[in-house]
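User: Okay, second chain of the day. Same drill as before: sequence in, structure tokens out.
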Amino acid sequence: MEKIAFYGKGGIGKSTIATCASLLLARMGKRVLHVGCDPKHDSSLVLVRDPAHFKTVMDKVFADEEVDREDLVMEGIEGIDCVEAGGPEAGRGCGGRAVSRAFEVFEDIALVDERYDAVVYDVLGDVVCGGFAAPMRRSAGSKVCIVLSEELMAAYAANRIASAVREFADNGVVLAGLVVNLRNNRADLLPIRRLADQLQAPVLGVLPRDPLVCEAELYRKTIVDYAPDSPVALGVHGVVERVLALDRAACTPPKPLPEAHVRMIMRGYAVGEAELPPPRERPVSTITEWSRLD
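Assistant: Same drill. Structure tokens below.
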């Protein structure tokens, strides 16, 4: 059974990539379970057949109801089974604890069993608490894909996720690599290459920013369904093929950096090298046009 977990900071594009991965795996003839591990419980929205009857694990837990498999699994398109961990209402309770509790329920009902060929986890991955590491801690043998952009905060999150992968290496968790989801299609990718080299993680693919992704979500579709020949759809297909072909035995634990070094690497400095200050001249923006709400 293939277990693939997509981690990354909030809003980085994990759900877009994870749902595409689930759909592509299903089209390869695999029986797929898609597990959303975000308290916002929005990962499966583009996959479930009937969003009017959307349900989460924590809805049942908070209602103090007995839970069985049929209560949790939602029928998705192309034979995909969908499950959402869910979480507390905004401002109440701990989202990380909710995800961890959901995995306890998964174990109680033996959710992940031999009926599936592949399980895809979509995980909020700033990894600031152990709850969001539940897929690593409780799902032995997962291949972790870290989604990041060219932005510094995404690099910080990627470094922390790499630390979690190293922490749970004894559980058979491996770092499959990095998936770069660009914010700016003209971004300099050398900083990410330097970060990948330091983490000793391959870059699985670079996905461009495309308005078609947002358009597809408005119609409750994945980009591989809505625009299968688009660069993003083709890029995700390449990522999935590389992860499936990954030889787990060839994977070595990542080497996360001290957090103080992440910014240095992204700026292009060697660790320990003296940093130069920013230029004296006031930076001038090159932006001349943007969308406005009048």
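The chain is about 35% helix and 15% strand.

User: Thanks, on to the next one.
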